[in-house]
C-alpha cells in the first residue's frame, strides 16, 4: 500500500510541475483541480477552443468559456445531460472565491467547504 501512495504522490508532483503550479501553495493545487473539472465539464468544441488558447488559471478558463458562449451560444459548450454552461462556470467561480477568502486557506478548508 505504501508503494501505491508513493506512486500517487509522484504522479501528483509531476502533474503540478507540468502545469507550472507550486505544490507548496494550496491555491495552486485548488486552481489546477478546478481547471481540470471545468475542462472535463465542457463539450468537445469548447474543449478544443480552450486548449488552443492555453489558459493558465481557472479564471482564464472561465473568461474564455464565457467568450465562446457569447459568440457561439450553448451549442457545443456543454456535454450532453449537463446544465447550462454559464451556471456551471458561475458555480465553480463562486466556490473558488469562497475558498480563497478563507483565512489560512489550506487543503482541509477546501475539502470541508465543498461538503
TrEMBL record:
InterPro entries: SCAN_dom, SCAN_sf. It comes from the Eukaryota. Residues 4-74 form the SCAN box domain. SUPFAM superfamilies: Retrovirus capsid dimerization domain-like. This is SCAN box domain-containing protein. It comes from Elysia crispata. The lineage of its organism: Eukaryota, Metazoa, Spiralia, Lophotrochozoa, Mollusca.
Amino acid at each position: 500500500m505504501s508503494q501505491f501512495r508513493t506512486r500517487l504522490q509522484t504522479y501528483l508532483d509531476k502533474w503540478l510541475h507540468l502545469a507550472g503550479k507550486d505544490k507548496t501553495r494550496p491555491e495552486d493545487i485548488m486552481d489546477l483541480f478546478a481547471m481540470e473539472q471545468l475542462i472535463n465539464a465542457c463539450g468537445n468544441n469548447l474543449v478544443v477552443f480552450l486548449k488552443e488558447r492555453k489558459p493558465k488559471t481557472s479564471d482564464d478558463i472561465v473568461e474564455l468559456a464565457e467568450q465562446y458562449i457569447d459568440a457561439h451560444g450553448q451549442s457545443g459548450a456543454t456535454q450532453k445531460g449537463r446544465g447550462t454552461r454559464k451556471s456551471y462556470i458561475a458555480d465553480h467561480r463562486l466556490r473558488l472565491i469562497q475558498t480563497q477568502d478563507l483565512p489560512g486557506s489550506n487543503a482541509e478548508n477546501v475539502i470541508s467547504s465543498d461538503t
